[in-house]
Design brief:
The complex is a heterodimer.
Chain A: E1 4-10, E2 13-27, E3 30-34, E4 41-45, E5 48-54, E6 59-64, E7 67-72, E8 75-80, E9 83-86, H1 91-108, H2 112-129
Parallel strand pairs in A: 1-8
Antiparallel strand pairs in A: 1-2, 2-3, 2-5, 4-7, 5-6, 6-9, 7-8
Chain B: H1 2-63, E1 81-87, H2 97-114, E2 118-124, H3 126-134, E3 141-143, H4 152-168, E4 173-183, E5 186-195, H5 204-209, H6 219-294
Parallel strand pairs in B: 1-2, 1-4, 2-3
Antiparallel strand pairs in B: 4-5
The chains are: A alpha+beta, B alpha/beta.
Chain lengths: ~130, ~300
């Protein structure tokens, strides 16, 4: 099965690099998903959650505040301003990541509805991890 | 005897200086490691951003997709006013690091003055600012304490002014001049034109084979915010790179100073020993000649 080559980059370093089955991105015009063999595309992202379905079937969520994505022949490059990955080895690590993600989204989002929806999504993502 | 004391005093003073320079070298080494790490992590992002923007710019240049007429992508052969942003260190004692940047700025300024282009100089870093103030060169902006501790927010705010002026058409080009980090012993001077985006070395043949689609509705908006981010990020990266280079330059300068001090102490010690020998010989001669005269 074909895979996407995904890279998530921030000014302070690489957040995610590796193969993925699919990626869901918070596009400027609305959320959209990418599967292998997607048409080449370059577009903007707004604040939200990037969901990555990994090779082993697990999902990982990354909260981003602004970005641009370039899709070119199964290579997906996501350039973002700030990002927090919801992951960790134990509960306290995950809780810390959650707090960071919430403060990141609070600093950019303009509506309460959006903050709430993002918070709900990352909390459920964190819940699956524990 | 007075001479002996004088030399001893000198030795002491030089070895004290040596201690200071050695300590400064160690501090710089530690700081360099951190700055280098930061620069390394950011480099990837910088490269990718530049790649994305270059691809878009290249396409616009080669086939004029969608008739985009964004100022940021169009070459301007007759600029009237340009911004020159320079980044120097806040502190000295780092060899020719600051001077190299200042010289490059001066070169750029004369080049454009000859073309009758007006220049707005915007400075980051105490040393460069002090230099241009002393030489009574007018500056639009002076930012201190940013180059020693790069901060994304402050650098973005600083850069926004140039970006906005560029978009409004007040200025026709933005240059960033800084001394970047190449490796521990070499720094590399960068004179980058950030806006308009450089598309000279873009090969049109290559793009024909690659496929790049822009989301149609938000083309203009996307280019706009992408260019803004690109310029902001370039500024930030210049700062990070400059810090790493500054520490490597200081490390080198302090290493050289420590070695020089060592050599100086050695030669002073030789001088001291000679003087001591001389004093002993004179004393001996005095005693002997005194004894001789008693006979």
């Amino acid at each position: 099965m074909q895979m996407l080559q995904l890279e998530v980059l921030t000014p302070s370093g690489l957040i995610y690099s590796g193969a993925a089955k699919s990626v869901t991105l918070p596009g400027e015009e609305g959320e959209f998903g990418i599967l292998p063999e997607h048409v080449s595309l370059t577009t903007l992202l707004k604040a939200g959650v990037v969901d990555i379905q990994k090779e082993n079937g697990k999902t990982e969520s990354i909260v981003v505040n602004w970005g641009v994505v370039q899709i070119n022949q199964n290579k997906v490059v996501v350039l973002v301003d700030g990002a927090v990955a919801i992951r960790g080895d134990n509960e306290s690590d995950i809780a810390k990541a959650l707090d960071e993600a919430k403060s990141l989204i609070n600093s950019v989002a303009d509506s309460n509805a959006m903050i709430a929806s993002v918070s709900a999504r990352i909390e459920s993502a964190a819940h699956h991890l524990v | 005897m007075a001479n002996l004391k004088e030399i001893q005093r000198q030795i002491k003073s030089v070895s004290n200086t040596q201690k200071t320079t050695r300590a400064m070298k160690l501090v710089s080494t530690a700081k360099l490691r951190r700055a280098e790490e930061l620069a390394k992590r950011s480099r990837l992002f910088a490269q990718k951003t530049n790649q994305v923007i270059a691809e878009i710019a290249g396409r616009i240049k080669c086939n004029k997709v969608g008739g985009i007429e964004n100022r940021c992508f169009i070459e301007n052969d007759t600029p009237e006013m340009i911004d020159i942003i320079f980044v120097t260190a806040d502190k000295g004692l780092c060899g020719g690091f600051n001077m190299q940047t200042i010289k490059a700025v001066k070169r750029l300024m004369t080049e454009y003055k000859n073309k009758k282009v007006k220049i707005r100089l915007r400075g980051i870093g105490k040393k460069g600012i002090e230099f241009f103030n002393y030489n009574e060169v007018e500056m639009l902006d002076e930012v201190k304490n940013l180059s020693s501790a790069p901060d994304m927010q402050r650098s973005s705010e600083f850069m926004m002014r140039s970006i906005n002026d560029f978009k409004e058409g007040k200025i026709d080009a933005v240059y960033i001049v800084y001394n970047g980090y190449l490796n521990v012993i070499t720094q590399q001077l960068h004179v980058n034109r950030v806006l308009p985006i450089n598309v000279d070395d873009y090969n049109c043949e290559e793009i024909k084979n690659s496929v790049l689609e822009l989301e149609a509705q938000d083309e203009e908006k996307m280019l706009d915010s992408l260019v803004t981010k690109y310029a902001e990020y370039n500024m930030y990266y210049a700062l990070i790179d400059s810090v790493a280079a500054e520490h490597s330059a200081r490390m080198q300068a302090m290493d050289a100073a420590t070695n020089n001090a060592k050599e100086m102490v050695n030669s002073l010690k030789v001088k001291f020993n000679k003087a001591r020998q001389e004093a002993i010989t004179t004393e001996l001669i005095e005693i002997i000649s005194g004894v001789e005269s008693m006979k």
